[in-house]
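Narrative progress, year one. The postdoctoral researcher (J.K.) led the effort to move from monomer predictions toward full complexes, under supervision of the PI. The following entry was the first complex the group processed end to end, covering 680 residues in total.
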Amino acid sequence: MIFIDACLGKKTPYTPVWMMRQAGRYLPEYMRVRGEAGDFLSLCKDVERACEVTLQPVDILGVDAAILFSDILVVPMEMGMDLRFEAGEGPIFDNPIKSQADLDALNVEKGVDNLSYVYEAVKMIRSKLDPSKALIGFCGAPWTLATYMIEGKGTKNYAVSKKMLYSNPQLLHAILRKITKALKVYMSRQIEAGANAVQIFDSWAQALEESAFFEFSWPYIKELCSYLKEKYPHIPIIVFPKGISAYLEKIDGDFDVFGVDWSTPIELAKEKLGSKYVLQGNMEPTRLYDKDAIDVGIDHIYSVMKNSRHIFNLGHGILPDIPVENAKYFIKSVQKRTKS
Amino acid sequence: MIFIDACLGKKTPYTPVWMMRQAGRYLPEYMRVRGEAGDFLSLCKDVERACEVTLQPVDILGVDAAILFSDILVVPMEMGMDLRFEAGEGPIFDNPIKSQADLDALNVEKGVDNLSYVYEAVKMIRSKLDPSKALIGFCGAPWTLATYMIEGKGTKNYAVSKKMLYSNPQLLHAILRKITKALKVYMSRQIEAGANAVQIFDSWAQALEESAFFEFSWPYIKELCSYLKEKYPHIPIIVFPKGISAYLEKIDGDFDVFGVDWSTPIELAKEKLGSKYVLQGNMEPTRLYDKDAIDVGIDHIYSVMKNSRHIFNLGHGILPDIPVENAKYFIKSVQKRTKS
């Protein structure tokens, strides 16, 4: 698998490419299956349909890796939190975590067992996926999951989580420990079901100032990486902490690939981390609105990374109103442009 | 005025301090006046009440500078765009700019004349404000204003503006030129009415990748700064482009103070810009939920900046649910801690 080779720093015939949220709303085929499933959460729990939408971008766009279709919030949901998705509002937990008692009510063992539909989907996807293509499993990072569990709904300022962080850090650490414990099992089971690599999404790393990031986010990601690396040394681990360009040089840990978000100049990521890790990313997702902008973006990133270890991707998820034709153009152009 | 001295790099008896959004919802006195005015926009247009809420944090908290109470969006509104504020949704322009014709319908000259209530408020505030305290005028940066004018409403991804940026850059540049033209007059009139310093807020600088920032945002800020600096060399100019920590070393221009947002480590800002500019900032605003967190935040920033040119501030606006007592504690603690 060219994607796995690239994750491990081996030479590949071209730079492999995939897109975050590639199984998503910009694809009419996805919208059809989602409509059949009923709603977003039903689609996550529907093994056959989750498998179908995971495979769509491989067939339609020719990406080099599939990423499991699921949502990061199924983990706290199955641990006992009531999750619903409201149109236009995003995910809502009706009973956010406010106290140690709220946290104690969550069950790690039951949660990871309840997630069997995810492991079954991984197994089915791996059995149907072209053997030359990789399957990426994933989870949300502990801090990112904690913000949702504490806020209960979308937030602009993360004020509830950060109030807890600065005035009751013990409780926040207890939440993070419990999530990390669940994620160790959750990711292990995805790997044992057939995931060829895993990615840890810390989308809300950017909500933290530096000192808080290195106390409340990064140590838990590192702990999870070390655990998985020791248990599954040949499975590449990708981390994606978004918005931390100001202190990239302080990043270390037992992982293979660092995901670069679009706000971090690729030159800076290469300078600070390129000798330690394979870099993944980081095209500005809105460049996909325009083919010329796609060409300029690819040229720029490739001019920086052509002699370094690199996986092409967007620097954030693909947007729902991107024309499929442009997404296809991006994938094909990368594969053609980077051919050695 | 100790604040102006600090802006110009002169030695001061202590580090002056103010807070972005200090005339705001966390103050019961503000809420009372806003209730009397009717709504937010009416308050912006009500000279006496705008003056009253501008002065409140000076009286209540003892900050070293007042900042004009207004909104960055009054500029496009008075140029001819219908603006309304919906509870929970923020500002809405019902007819966003989609074409050159939409842009042509906006009138710079009429707009800056219609803004006379702002100039009158500045005049009244300056006449009532303690002569030892500075009055800061302000505007939104061209790119930030353009995003609102193009999106029409709140956005998570700036997808409409960035679609224009990558597929119709000519129109975006035309919008930015027209806004910049209006801001030159608007800021000149604030200064002539009595503003002792001005701040340019580029809150959505963070929505741009590096190359786009240096094409669509920064040149227009620089142009505005150069214009004002030449005309009013003794009026300090503060710029606040949020979320650009990855390329601080490329920042230059005719301004005096660089506002550091909370996501940029103050050590990094000092290293990259501290020898060229006075730095303002950058306490994490959610630290104001807790007095111990305030102390730790002040100690950290002061340990870095004590022998450098510095103005204390938050790294973003104060949040509506911060206890007034904690805001007061922050201001008093800075003034006490930094006394030489």
